Amino acid sequence: MDSLIKQKTIKKEILIKGTSLHRGKDTKLKILPAKENTGIKFIRTDKKRNNIIQARWNNVTDTKMCTVISNRSGIKVSTIEHLMAAIASYQINNLTIEINESEVPILDGSSKQFCNKIEKAGVVNQSKNQKFIKILNNIKLKSKHTYASLSPSKNNLKVSFNIDFQHPLIKNERYHIQINKNNFKNEIAPARTFGFKKEHKKLKKLGLANGASLENCVVINRNKILNKNGLRYDNEFVRHKVLDVCGDLYLAGYPILGHFKGYQSGHYLNNQLLRKLFQNKSAFAMVNMTLKQREETNIIAMPIPNKIAS
User: Fold this and answer.
1) Closest by alpha carbon to 109, among 216, 245, 186?
2) CA distances from 310 to 9, 39, 253 (A)
3) Taking a C-beta distance cutoff of 8 angstroms, is the pair 47, 75 a contact?
4) How many beta carbons lie within 10 A of that of residue 288, not counting itself?
5) Which residue in 2, 91, 229, 282 could disulfide with 292, CB within 3.0 to 4.6 Å?
6) What contacts 301, CB < 8 A, 6 or more positions away?
7) Is the pTM of this model over 0.90?
8) Annotated catalytic, 167?
9) How far is residue 78's CA from residue 293's CA, in Å, rounded to a whole number?
10) CA torsion sign, 24 to 270 to 57 to 286?
């Protein structure tokens, strides 16, 4: 019998330093290996008490311009989505992330450097079996201008995204991809966050984008990209939205096997979709999977308790 896919962590610790996007603070991250069934756990080292925050959908407390998680004591970590997307692409289950500030550094505005650091550290299998969330029935959220859904697929996560900003440089962009480690690293990870120059002052008044620069954002000014080297992809904007989806969905606590479709959705709708999913027990099943099953795109559900630990 082919062995089941195992949980994963990193082989050695990762150190990352950089400026945070919204607070504009110098921040240090230390990413450490963790034991089986730990999940992805942040620890605020600048706080002495109640400083642990689990990276889970039900700990998301704010989605304005980024994804923020908090614990019951109100200790938070923000802008986690680019790091979470990189972790998701390697299907790493267990990590302890020490951070000396309240916001993850933005680096170049993408997941590329996080992926490079993870590859350099190495990923290792652990002894416990990995669980997956297999989507069984459609889950949808729709408003006048946005849409997000999860529907069944086979042994993978597919993302189909559509944006339309009604702007000369960001018209109707569509993108579809089956997410795996190589596809994410080559096609999605380098796509940077983006913003409009005319909105920068307004955001700063709200306490946002204090660390934003041409080094970590694609900046759009009317009909021009202000970054010296332009875009990394012709459709970099929609690719970055896919990146955000990957990070936000990994807050489910396990890799999702399903098809995400989105139109103009953001962090708020992504999180609300997870909340709706877990309210509907018949919409998903917890499964194990073998490497062979993944390769053959044929999932066989294994008996695992339906309850997902909080």
Assistant:
1) 216
2) 20, 10, 9
3) yes
4) 18
5) 2
6) 134, 285, 287
7) yes
8) no
9) 36
10) negative
